[in-house]
């Protein structure tokens, strides 16, 4: 378990508790700032906030990538199916289920649209 210390210690710790070295971000901070400022509710953003959001985004993307890779057929190639499977099986990622739905064939989608409830509703509207 990771024990967080005072932020002023300037020590960067990853999820496993190991020191990750320099305090650099892999994402361009100027882009992160631009995205954050695109919200109408944001007036000014401090450098610490931009860096923190950038690091959190990196960690989230790493979590998604590794989790999706575990669900892929090939352990060397990350594909949409792996990410979508992760999103649709992990309750914490449920908020992404509409953005990353499971792939389905046209036949499966058509069958899904022809549920018995829809047939009953159309019959009752035809009788009226």
TrEMBL record:
<dbReference type="InterPro" id="IPR003958">
    <property type="entry name" value="CBFA_NFYB_domain"/>
</dbReference>
<feature type="domain" description="Transcription factor CBF/NF-Y/archaeal histone">
    <location>
        <begin position="26"/>
        <end position="75"/>
    </location>
</feature>
<protein>
    <submittedName>
        <fullName>Histone-like transcription factor (CBF/NF-Y) and archaeal histone</fullName>
    </submittedName>
</protein>
<dbReference type="InterPro" id="IPR009072">
    <property type="entry name" value="Histone-fold"/>
</dbReference>
<keyword id="KW-0539">Nucleus</keyword>
<dbReference type="Pfam" id="PF00808">
    <property type="entry name" value="CBFD_NFYB_HMF"/>
</dbReference>
<dbReference type="InterPro" id="IPR050568">
    <property type="entry name" value="Transcr_DNA_Rep_Reg"/>
</dbReference>
